[in-house]
């Protein structure tokens, strides 16, 4: 699988909620389950706190894929944070797709504090998928446009 | 003297209101008119060419002051007033909302009346915008990305789209936030796109669809397509969502086929 992409190792940013997925990821570690190391976890108080701009910033900053995960519906520590977040993502996904941003690179998931094995699966799955898709160059190119322009003129 | 001028002049001379915002004939198109005296009201006109969304002034105290005012608006102004009222941005006691329906001057006395008018007088959708949306929908993802990157690349970030929008009323906009700097303030491919994404996301479910953002754009960027598309998507996803606040509420039954 690495033949096409010169040993491309995807960089994945995971935005997770403190109460479920972060604890779930912790469980993955304490259960000694091995999973891909390409993921960088960013902990949030709730999925409702995950601003859509953070996703765009992650892509601009060099992420090839994004995982967003939190408590299952009805399990939110703040009762309704994940419901609000879900609704925001529904709208956001439609718009990203219309603007041609690759929503296949964003993985949404619910991982509870007890689902350590599921977290490993989610990460491995995403890493494999992004590895096949290759680096997200078009977005990075847009983000670095001005820097590269300067080099051209010099 | 037209019925509209008579009625509005009467409001001013009675002292019911201190200011009337309506439309007057401009050089090419009708433009917003501010009438402070009964004589000013003679300039007021109303026809299908009156497109400006006068709702944009309703949240600007420096323009309308604290006194009671009257607005002679089109369909979208009425829709805007309903939405602004829902968001607690205006005081209906200080506002006389009027429109012209055929030959009649209609004065609304309650939100229910406005809602009824809005429900029964929906204008025909803009075929050009719908055709453009269809065209973009048919493209592949890469083509869509290239299209928008190219289309928004000439944006000079004048924020006319923001200024013309009656629902963009934040005192401090996200583009003026620099700690953290969410969106780069200069014109660049990504920040131009990020600005539009933010604008659309903040408008989602609230946009009244007047198209003033696109009309105000000095570069004629196709940004009206984005707000329209967002409106269509929300209608499809959430059905005929009436109360306007799609993102400030939720339903336990929302679809989650994308969450695995």
Question: Secondary-structure map with pairings?
Answer:
The complex is a heterodimer of chains A (154) and B (260).
Chain A: E1 12-17, H1 21-30, E2 39-44, H2 52-60, E3 65-70, H3 81-98, E4 106-110, H4 116-133, H5 137-143, H6 145-153
Parallel strand pairs in A: 1-2, 1-3, 3-4
Helix pairs in contact in A: 1-4
Chain B: H1 3-14, E1 19-25, E2 30-35, E3 44-45, H2 61-64, E4 69-72, H3 75-86, E5 95-101, E6 104-108, H4 111-120, H5 127-138, H6 141-152, H7 160-164, H8 189-203, H9 212-216, H10 223-238
Parallel strand pairs in B: 1-4, 4-5
Antiparallel strand pairs in B: 1-2, 1-3, 5-6
Helix pairs in contact in B: 3-4, 5-10, 6-8, 8-10
Quick recap:
The complex is a heterodimer of chains A (154) and B (260). By secondary structure, chain A is an alpha/beta fold. Chain A has helices at 21-30, 52-60, 81-98, 116-133, 137-143, 145-153; strands at residues 12-17, 39-44, 65-70, 106-110.
